[in-house]
Amino acid sequence: INAEYMGDFHHRFFIPLFPSTKMGRMHSNGKGVSRSSLPYRRTPHSWLKATPSDVVEKICKLAKKGMSPSAIGVMLRDSEGIAQVKSVCSSKILRILKCNGLAPTLPEDLYFLIRKAVAVRKHLDRNRKDTDSKFRLILIESRIHRVARYYKRVRTLPPNWKYEANTASALVA
Questions:
Q1: Residue 27 contacts by C-beta under 8 Å, 6 or more apart in sequence?
Q2: Exposure pattern of 116-144 as b/e (b: 16+ CB <10 Å)?
Q3: Model's pTM, two decimal places?
Q4: Which residue, 63, 47, 50, is CA-closest to 96?
């Protein structure tokens, strides 16, 4: 067997660890790989004096004020110095909220998509000729349907849940 042929064979079937073709965005042409990374340490720092019961109490207090799980995480990170709640409590914020019966009825990403669709629809009521917004509303609503389909599959939403534009403002009120 020719050595050149073997080299070519190897390169033809070599699967790189980080492929050059990235998965694209759903409704744009971006293929970015920028993302945040978790802290290397999985244990809380020695200077952190917060106990798991204190953190759970604080999470429940913030949830009762109406804050979303991600907003609670940002608040704990900025004011309390807790980088990851999971490293302190060995449980994530949403799981803590579910255990205490404070979890939001709608998943957070779906809630914000619906809120965006309601805002665009309100804009369209005032500006009928804004065709770009009409197009963007179609894209937002298709994302809502896709995310809802996922949450029905993993049984976070009931199987008969359906997004309807005329009742959407009541969901996010």
A1: 139, 142, 143
A2: bbbebbeebeeeeeeeebeebbeebbebb
A3: 0.78
A4: 63
- pLDDT tens by residue, the chain, 173 residues: 555 555 555 555 555 555 555 666 788 888 888 888 888 888 888 899 999 999 999 999 999 999 999 999 999 999 999 989 999 999 999 999 999 999 999 999 999 999 999 999 999 999 999 999 999 999 999 999 999 999 999 999 999 999 999 999 998 87
What are the b/e assignments for 25-52, b being 16+ CB within 10 Å? eeeeeeeeeeeeeeeeeeebeeeeebee
Question: Do residues 104 and 68 touch, judged by C-beta distance below 8 A?
Answer: yes
Contact 56/96 with Cβ under 8 angstroms?
Answer: yes
Structure tokens that stand for 107 in this block: 């998943």
